[in-house]
Design goal:
Pfam families: Dak2, FakA-like_C, FakA-like_M. Residues 9-201 form the DhaL domain. It comes from Mycoplasma bradburyae. The structure is a single chain. This protein is α+β, with helices and mostly antiparallel strands. The protein has helices spanning 8-30, 42-57, 65-79, 82-97, 107-123, 133-146, 154-175, 177-182, 187-204, 208-212, 260-267, 294-302, 315-318, 364-374, 382-385, 390-399, 415-425, 439-446, 455-467, 508-522, 539-553, and strands at residues 5-7, 104-106, 237-245, 271-279, 284-291, 305-314, 353-361, 378-381, 402-409, 430-435, 470-476, 481-482, 487-488, 493-497, 500-505, 528-533, 556-561, 569-573. Strand 9, helix 17 (415-425) and strand 10 form a beta-alpha-beta unit.
Amino acid sequence: MASDSLTTRQLQAMFIEGYNIVSTRYEYINNLNVFPVPDGDTGTNMKITMKGGVDTIADGNFVTMQKLGKVFATGLFMNACGNSGVIFSQIIKGFTKSLPEADEIDIKQLINCFKEAKEVAYSVIQSPVEGTILTVIRLTSEQLIKNEEKIKSVEQLFELVVEYAKDALEQTPKMLPALKTANVVDSGGFGLVSFLEGMLAELTQDFSKVNNDKQFVNKKALSTKAEQELVEEGHGYCTEFLLKLGLKSEDKQTKKKFDEKKFKKDIEKDVESLVLINNKDEEIIKLHAHTLTPDVVLRHAQVYGEFLKIKIENMNRQVIERKQDDGADNDHKTANIEALMNIDLSKAKNFRTETAIIATVPSRVLGKMIVQNYDVDQFIDTSATGNPTIRDFIEYIYRVKSKNVIIVVDDTNLLLAAREAISQIKKYINCELIACQNFIESLSAISGYMRSDTLKNNVKLLNKMIKSTGSACISTSAKNIKYPHLKVSKDDYIGIIKKKIVVSDRDIYKCLLDTVSHLVQEVKKPELILIIHGKNTSSNEVRTVVKLISEKFGIYCESINGSQKLYQYYIGVQ
């Protein structure tokens, strides 16, 4: 039966069903993402964001539309993840902005909600890009306003919303060349359409269309998107935070009044893809940006308050590591400052040694090797546990029971957590960080460690050892990529030096030899070439690699079984 209004309870159920549809399709949405450096996984990000909102309203009994909207929008905002999640949260913020202080909403008011959804979403994006989720909400809103007089029921309204949104989604490849080349639609836009389809299904109680779309249920999209694409061009860090304005960590501190214009100006040279949301009601700032220097952005922000949540992710690693955990997709990535309060740092005493060293490693095999051969006290196997949290680092530092501790990380994605851990424990333990880009650099640094020497001298020597070594990684390209200096084809073997693809070839041996040629030119008087082979390499292949390298360069070549997963080979030249 057609109706000219919608109740609070109906809208609540529609929000929940919208999330349900996205949660059944999130893997499909993930695989629509074809950009060289995707902002995480769009489907996962949207699912996390929506779940945060749904969890706040699922069991609630809301007497007005306005109350429901505010709670749902706040839940989305606090849990927004990635570009798509942030933009979706703002679409809903706009949609709920004009919800009435009543138990019902009529057709005209609903159309205005979609208009506000578009306006708010566009207002928070510094440089809106068409061919994205923004286009879908804009064209949907414009079509609703254009055809307002024809709409006679809320059921018809939402049927048209889905129709207009789907039409807009089909236009996204015409606006973004990357989508057209891959023959897919925008992933964030698809997520929004899925949410709207869920809302319509709940309203009409006709679930046949969404239930029959089996091709979308967590299956891979027919695109050139690859699960382990490698793009190592130094795109930096995806940086997100929630900042509570005026909050102090100490009473004696003073915080400045937030000046949005000045803050944007302060960080504009350091960031790209900036999304800044100022929730004036809650006095919370949410930022999403891409930057090579996240510490600079955080420092500028902290003068206005203290962080409730921080997330920093290396975008180059994001394209390699797919999020698989269905229940806690982003918990281990988030530095929750309150969690640190459960650790009694004052107990960090009764030291057993003067100096100790902790290192992150890409496999348990390499961890055992550095403990046995290089006097390392503890290793953190990131292939088994994922990226260590701040709490993890603190616990490892505490566990070695040493007055002075050196942490060596083999991945720049681990730096922020390690630095924060050090800052939390520095009152009790002297701790220094050695930053490496890969395990070869880490191994080179560790080889210079002298337990009997001072912390200061060890840090100086370890950093010097890194500079004396050339390092590279070999992997497989998962799709066609064209750079100004190089054309990479899908399934090519690629050589990566200093986060840049320098070699691409169908032949693994030629790729290795050409990559070593680059390294040999960088290192003065090379005397040793070290090959660390990964989990999926054969002994015959490794023997051939060692033979070819030794013969071509006339330098002694040694191989080690590393059993690492992400790279077929690490190469080091000393």
